[in-house]
Specification:
Chain lengths: 316, 244
């Protein structure tokens, strides 16, 4: 009963999103959904490192930015077709994750946070100062996905990317890799002593997470079409953190839920833009205090309560 | 031929040699106790054998092959399992999932492998008496149960030798007896060689075939349990502490 209700809801949601641009041809709503799709990919893949493996990665914005710049430059300077250059952006981000992944393998906790954060800042400064290549703060004007592509085109590409990322993550986390990640988070030493090659799997997680984040960043750049080094700013990382914590880290639906809620919320709170980080901060504190597992755990406890009620009704 | 053997093992932290030019040798299917005062270097010796630390000098032979320098997961795949002095269960996983991890990765670290580790894990839980608790989260277990989860997990890796670091510390007398008979059963039914660090003298004296005594990183005595406790060097090492 329960399971089928859930699948019906999910199917409904899938159909709604599949036909959304035709049902509600409101460019502004479509824009918000595109952003939600792209950021869902980013937050979900950060969650693999942070939520599942317990790696304190605070440099995810770098993978997003590296994907964006690699793809934008490749398309701009060499005229590579954009769909190809986006995939290339994913690979470059993935490669860069080896640079950042290796030094963090032997570190723990706060040190990992510092190293990853520093890495992202170095990347941002590089893009900012390498004016000959990136035009620095002036920014690049980025090629369109396909010449003349409209909003609806971007909508479907972003939607597909989120589907792809979600299917990959589902597949991977339901394989024994899911156990590996949690085992490493709970005790690296114990995992190692039970035959798990911790280093190999940490690197695999970095490769996957940064590849997907790089794809998301590249698509974002070709959609917004203006690219400045600010794409790699700490603000983005804080946003990722809030989206993840709000929805529930260490779960698959959590980051997606959190991203959608925050993307729409921050649009409706636009008038208070200058207070954005105060609002974010408050949200985090409230989430940690009242729903420590995020919205997903809140929903789950409501679900079990409803279920309990139904059982009671059934038995009486 | 001994199943596990160390020669000239040394490991220093800063200037202090926690393990100092130490030799040991363990026969197949023996239960060997390792005792010594606090800070003697017992856990460090286990960490050397299990691959958590690399010895600064010396060799470790297991089944005739040298294994020093291998990574912990490789040592596990070869057939040496371990538990931890401070228990390290996977708290957010269930008891069964903890054992499944041992069964799944104990012999190979590959992810996409088709065999089903659950029966092996269930066997291990049955063996340590945690079948009824299999769906509980480890977080909700008491200390005795957590220690048995660690035993089940390591048994699920199908080891030939297990290194048990104070599995009886913090247990009440009933639980202690239970773990003692478990260890004997491991040797008798599963033919596992047991190397165990233990402060609980009743256990050391009760089930060990042989006892090693460490002090300041060196092995100061070895032999039958009842002989070792009468040894003059051992009594001096424990001066001020009661052994029995
Ligand atoms: N990781 C480490 N870093 C630095 N020093 C260490 C480390 N591990 C152990 N030591 C030192 O090595 C010495 C031996 O420690 P070890 O834990 O091996 O003793 P032990 O015999 O297991 O003692 P206990 O009975 O208290 O468990 C101690 O002086 C300890 O402080
Ligand atoms: Mg110790």
């Amino acid at each position: 009963m329960k399971g089928s209700l859930k699948s019906i809801l999910l199917l409904g949601l899938f159909l709604l999103l599949s036909f959304f641009p035709f049902l509600f041809p409101d460019p502004y709503l479509i824009h918000l959904l595109i952003l939600s799709f792209i950021f869902s990919v980013l937050v979900s893949n950060w969650n693999i490192l942070f939520g599942y493996m317990g790696i304190f990665c605070f440099g995810q914005q770098a993978f997003f930015g590296i994907g964006a710049y690699s793809s934008a430059l490749l398309a701009l300077k060499l005229g590579v077709p954009v769909p190809l250059s986006i995939v290339f952006g994913g690979f470059v981000a993935s490669l860069s994750s080896i640079l950042i992944g290796l030094p963090t393998l032997r570190l723990q906790g706060a040190y990992v946070a510092l190293v990853t954060l520093a890495f992202a800042e170095v990347m941002r400064m590089t893009c900012s100062n390498w004016v000959g290549m990136t035009r620095g703060q002036l920014g690049l004007t980025v090629t369109a996905l396909i010449p003349g592509a409209g909003r609806v085109g971007y909508y479907y590409v972003a939607f597909l990317l989120l589907l792809l990322s979600t299917i990959v993550l589902l597949k991977v986390m339901r394989s024994s890799f899911g156990y590996v990640t949690v085992a490493i988070r709970e005790s690296q030493e114990a995992a190692d002593s039970l035959g798990i090659n911790v280093i190999k799997y940490k690197i695999s997680a970095f490769l996957l997470s940064s590849f997907m984040s790089g794809l998301a960043g590249a698509l974002y750049a070709h959609y917004i079409r203006i690219l400045t080094p600010d794409i790699m700013s700490l603000h983005l990382m804080i946003t990722i953190l809030v989206m993840g914590m709000l929805g529930g880290i260490g779960t698959l639906p959590g980051p997606i839920l959190g991203t959608f809620v925050l993307t729409f919320l921050s649009e409706y709170l636009r008038d208070f833009a200058q207070f954005r980080f105060i609002i974010y901060g408050t949200l985090i504190i409230l989430a940690v205090l009242f729903v420590p597992g995020g919205l997903v755990s809140g929903l789950r406890s409501v679900e079990t309560k409803l279920k309990g009620k139904r059982c009671q009704e059934g038995s009486s | 031929m001994p199943i596990l053997q160390g020669k000239g093992l040394t490991k220093a932290f800063g200037g202090v040699e926690a393990v100092s030019n130490l030799d040991f040798s363990i026969q197949e299917r023996a239960i060997v106790g390792l005792i010594g005062p606090n800070g003697a270097g017992k856990t460090t010796l286990f960490n050397l054998v299990a691959g958590a630390f690399r010895p600064q000098s010396g060799r470790i032979r297991f089944l005739g092959e040298e294994i020093q320098g291998l990574k912990p997961f490789e040592i596990c795949h070869r057939g040496i399992g371990r538990t931890f002095q401070i228990v390290k269960p996977f708290n957010t996983l269930t008891v069964l999932e903890n054992a499944v991890i041992g069964a799944r990765f104990g012999k190979s670290s590959k992810i996409f492998d088709s065999f089903d580790p659950t029966p092996i894990a269930l066997d291990a839980l049955e063996f340590v008496g945690l079948i009824k608790e299999k769906d509980l989260l480890c977080d909700n277990l008491n200390m005795g149960e957590k220690k048995r989860v660690e035993l089940a997990r390591v048994l699920a890796t199908a080891p030939k030798v297990v290194l048990l670091d104070e599995v009886m510390a913090g247990l009440n007398p009933v639980e202690t007896d239970r773990v003692m008979s478990l260890i004997q059963k491991m040797r008798d039914e599963k033919e596992i060689t047991v190397f165990m660090i233990e402060h609980v003298m009743k256990a050391v004296m009760g089930i060990s075939d042989q006892v090693f005594v460490m002090h300041h990183g060196e092995k100061i005595a070895e032999g039958l349990p009842e002989m070792v406790v009468k040894d003059q060097a051992v009594i001096e090492a424990y001066l001020g502490e009661r052994i029995i």
